[in-house]
Amino acid sequence: MLIEHSWWWPVARVEDVGPDPQALQLLGERLVLWKTAGGDLSLLTDRCPHRGARLSMGRVQGQSVQCPYHGWRFGADGQCVAIPAQPGFTPPDSSRACAHRLQLAHGLVWAALAVPQHPVPLLKGLPDRRLIYGPFDVATSAPRAVENFLDTAHFAYVHEGWLGDAAHPEVPSYEVSHTDGGRPVIECYRAWQPRASASAQDGAWVEYRYEVLSPYAALLTKRGEQASMAQDSYVIWACPQTDGSCRLWFAQYTTDEHTPDDALRDFQLAIFAQDQPILESQEPKALPLSGSEAMSAADRLSAAYRRYLKACGIGAGVC
Known about the structure:
The protein is 15% helix and 33% strand. The chain is α+β, with helices and mostly antiparallel strands and 319 residues long. 35% of the residues are buried.
């Protein structure tokens, strides 16, 4: 068993789970997420134990999901409840599909592939207004995506005219501290941004706070020096699909009560559209923990994040 199996991972937005089975991938395993007629969620390995067909190609029948090949039906716990070719036959436990643990938190569905040893990250003291953007399927590893979220030195180039200015690429000195659990934190990082948020009309000085929440999740909070600026907190939730691919969601918690949802969403989509091609260009796709990539003093948080992954024993998406 991989150590990653004992962590909770986001697999879908709660509101995106509809009446049809949904094919997912987590840590290289194909899964099917579905909702019973009674509203209960179920996550099964996406393989019928009869002949190996993908259950995600089937359909929900009341309290069960039906295999598209021979019509075998499975309950939310994976137990086979009907074999149409043998009416009245009670399927044995050996005909069970593999079921996985689920919980709901932060507007997302979370899955664990083994007995969880770590809780879903807690979020405290954030603004009440929340928007969730995604999913974004990205052809890079989850650690690469999280490290990009934590990186400030790229603002002047990848987000020029938005979050940074190429005429001022310098990264001010900052200190990395750690939580009791060893998660890296930057308490204060100060930056000039031409357009810090969707509602910003002019450039402003912004103070950032970064916190790694778990191996593949992080939080940043930004506050403008102008009292009129909204406080925004952003979370990246990364699902490691394979060593070279991931699915991302971004959650925004904001005190901005006036900017429409669509405008907030469009701003964040524009920012990530600038990031994605750079992320997908990086080689190797797995994040090196061995020191094979050059570092500078501006990369203190990246280096701390890599050390944290190594301390956690994370093996998926790293090399």
